[in-house]
Recover the amino acids of this structure.
C-alpha cells in the first residue's frame, strides 16, 4: 500500500463508493448481524456532550478523497451543457463499503449522539487512481443497495434480488418521526427510497408496496423495475 493518513471521523461523514453491496462478508458473516457486534465506548471529554468511539470486529476502513462522476439511474455519466461529465461534491469515499454500512447503522443507533472511528485515507496518487476505476456509486455515495446477485454483474440493477436501500439520512428522518414502524424501518436498514440525479433533475425510486410508494403511484413519471415507481423531485 501507498501512503495512508489516519483521521478521526463520524461514519456518517464518509460516503459509499459502490452502488450495491452483498449482504455477507467474505467469511460468510452477515453485515446486518455484525452491526450488533459494534461496541460504543463513551469518550471522555470536558464538555457535557456525550460522544462514542465505535469498536468494531473488523479492521479500519480505508477511503479516498475525491469528486466522483455524477451518474443517472442507469449508471451513465451525467453531462453538462458542453457535453462534459459532471462531478459531485468532494468528500471521503470508502473502499470497504460493507464495513461502512455496518458503521453507519451503528452510528444511527446512537443518534443524535455523535460516534467516531479512525479510518485510513489513501493519499498516494497512483493508488487513488487505481481505486477510482472501481467507483460505481450513482448517488454521490449517499446511499447503497444491499442485495444479492446471480452472475449478472454488480452494475446490472435490474437483475438484483432482495433489493433494499440504506441511506442514513432517511433512517435518521424516520427515527425523528417516531413510532414503532419508523424505528423498525431504521433498524432493518431499509429506508424505502433511493435518490439519484439524472439529466432532468433529482429523481426518487420508491417501492410500490411502501406507504409512500402507494401514494406516489398515481403521479409516477414512469414505471420502475424492482417493484418501484419513479417520481421526479425537481
Amino acid at each position: 500500500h501507498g501512503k495512508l493518513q489516519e483521521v478521526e471521523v463520524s461514519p456518517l461523514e464518509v460516503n459509499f463508493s459502490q452502488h450495491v453491496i452483498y449482504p455477507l462478508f467474505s467469511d460468510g458473516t452477515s453485515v446486518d448481524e455484525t452491526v450488533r457486534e459494534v461496541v460504543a465506548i463513551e469518550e471522555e471529554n470536558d464538555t457535557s456532550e456525550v460522544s462514542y468511539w465505535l469498536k468494531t470486529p473488523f479492521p479500519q476502513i480505508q477511503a479516498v478523497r475525491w469528486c466522483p462522476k455524477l451518474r443517472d439511474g442507469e449508471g451513465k455519466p451525467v453531462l453538462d451543457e458542453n457535453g462534459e461529465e459532471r462531478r459531485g461534491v468532494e468528500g471521503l469515499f470508502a473502499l470497504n463499503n460493507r464495513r461502512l454500512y455496518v458503521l453507519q447503522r451503528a452510528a444511527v443507533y446512537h443518534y443524535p449522539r455523535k460516534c467516531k472511528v479512525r479510518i485510513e485515507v489513501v493519499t498516494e496518487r497512483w493508488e487513488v487512481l487505481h481505486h477510482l476505476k472501481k467507483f460505481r456509486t450513482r448517488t454521490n455515495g449517499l446511499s447503497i443497495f444491499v442485495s444479492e446477485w446471480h452472475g449478472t454483474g454488480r452494475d446490472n440493477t435490474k437483475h438484483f434480488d432482495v433489493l433494499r436501500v440504506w441511506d442514513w439520512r432517511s433512517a435518521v428522518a424516520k427515527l425523528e418521526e417516531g413510532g414503532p414502524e419508523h424505528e423498525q424501518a431504521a433498524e432493518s436498514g431499509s429506508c424505502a427510497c433511493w435518490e439519484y440525479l439524472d439529466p432532468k433533475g433529482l429523481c426518487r425510486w420508491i417501492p410500490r408496496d411502501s406507504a409512500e410508494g402507494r401514494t406516489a403511484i398515481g403521479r409516477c413519471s414512469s414505471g420502475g423495475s424492482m417493484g418501484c415507481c419513479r417520481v421526479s423531485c425537481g
The CA atoms of residues 62 and 101 lie 13 Å apart.
